[in-house]
Amino acid sequence: MHDEDTFIYLQMQHKLKKNMLCGTFEIVKLVAKTQQTPEEPKQPNSQTIISKTMHYEEPTQNQSNQATMTKRQYITKVFEITENVTTQLHSGSESGLNARKEVQATSAMFGGKSTTIAGVYVESSKKKLSFLEASEKGFLAKTYAVEFLEAQAATGRITDLAKGQILSVLEAVEKGIVDPALKNKLLEAEKAFTGYVYAGKKLSVFQAMQQRLIDRYRGKMYLEVQWSTGGLINPETGGRVPANTAIDQGLIDKDTLQNLYEPGSNNKAFHSLDTGQKAYYSEILKSCVFDIDGGVYLVPFGDRHLTRVSPTSSHRVCVVSSSQGSEMSAYEAFKKNYIDSSTYLALSKHESQWEEKYIVDANGKSMRIISDSKSGREICLEYALRQRFLEKSEFESYCSGVLSIYELAGVIFSRMVVVEDANSPIAGLWDVTSQKRVSIFQGCQQGFTDRATALRLLEAQACTGGICDPASGEKSRLSEAVKRGLVDEALAQQLQQFEQAYYGILNPQTGKMLSVSQAVQENLLPKDVGFRCIEFQLLTGGLVNPETQERVSFEEVMQSGLVDKVTAAVLKDEKFHTKCLACPKTKRKITFKEALERSVFDCHTGLRLLEATKLHPFGAKAMYHYILAYK
């Protein structure tokens, strides 16, 4: 094993010294040979590794055991992975394949391929424009365009979209890509890439800030741009540097790194073309589309909001062909071989963040779940197998690491056929701002709605089939819902009668299960509770037959006399409907019927979601959220 470690190390050194510009893809290939399983590496770069290998001293023969550990520690630190993963490196485990794909994704995105935003994608014409061209056409203010050009200069990536070339500032000015009036401003920004000359040395952005060669506001802007596009740049080598190495080399300190995305410490320096609001560069980058004609990222402009996720569309558009005018999801582009697996995984991480977990169901059976923390979706893999959304061979490929979790999710959701549930109550909320599914109880906890509104919506769920989990579309009885965090104990107590209304209310004298209306007539259910149950059930498809859980339509209810004429008349006349809910989006009082009319069917579950937003009490931020809610 010691000889193998030595071989791995020497192979890496030889390869890197042979070609300093070999690119991160070469590093990934070397890692692949070691069967390594990185845990979310922070974009290693070949030039970064070279700078570290120059200081590595080969141990003597009598230090072989220590040498092995040193080499492992070396690999661990360079790739910023855990010791446990490094151990797996030598185990030959097949599980490393999955993680290696993710390393390749990170490498492709932050190594050989530029993630600096290259221009604008005009949604109406499906064409790409440089930032200055877009400014001249009135799509964005010139000051916004200059911000993005400064970001390109600060990463050494002034882009000629027409020819697909990467230029220096002087080259861009000579070729007419950049206005000569911007030359000095962009040359100053380019120093973030080439270095600030001071006392015969080239200083990085952070080092220049320490020497007061650049103001802190602009310096932090450059740091945030570099960090979000692959790592801080070492001007001595021109290479990207991951976090641990950056701190070791004095390219940044821990406090500055930790506060890079704290508005109080680092102001948002860019403007979103979608909202006009201030934003970090990384936030805008996540909303970009990838143009396969040139392999560049473009920020979309238009009213279609291509990259915005909604509950009615399963995938957002994030890949375009500006020459063909075609638009598609990352998975579609991957299946059509327009992008490779590395690019697919990199783009998928903009849209989702899948992880695996195990849960135990009501019967004590363990289930394997994959969940997306960004969109609030989840699905049980055993269920996917039963429904043939996933083949056994594909599941085995995932288990062995051949198929990544992102590819697995893409396979499942591309095959799912979701039917809208016309009998669905309001199953959950859709957070307009974060574009995520939220359960009713979570929405109450997070301030989207008040507890009284949450209680009414949960009452409707309980008496129409169970407490809904918008992440998976599953419905649970109260005991299970408490365990899953869909309600708390206090709510469960308040909802018991509504659950009984669905499964039937026992008549203690006859032993017969009664419907809601029958239970009210027998004084086994309070009239106000019974009236709400009848309203909720009829508005979501009909009164529930407790013996079969089948629905009985309003017309059938009238003919059969299950509901008395007075109650039927009140339910039919909307002016008697109580405005018992505060709309989670507008905060105005509405009826349950109005809530159903405002809801949308979730493409993931087929259940109804109600859009929600938090309105801040005052200030410009409140106005932004108010406008966003009505867009």
From TrEMBL:
It is found in: Cell junction, Desmosome; Cell membrane. It comes from the Eukaryota. GO terms for biological process: cell-cell adhesion; intermediate filament cytoskeleton organization; skin development; wound healing. Its main location: other. GO terms for cellular component: cytoplasm; desmosome; intercalated disc; intermediate filament; plasma membrane. InterPro entries: Plakin (IPR043197), Plakin_repeat_sf (IPR035915), Plectin_repeat (IPR001101). Keywords: Cell junction, Cell membrane, Coiled coil, Membrane, Phosphoprotein, Repeat. GO terms for molecular function: structural molecule activity. Belongs to the plakin or cytolinker family. PANTHER family: DESMOPLAKIN, ENVOPLAKIN. This is Uncharacterized protein. It comes from Periophthalmus magnuspinnatus.
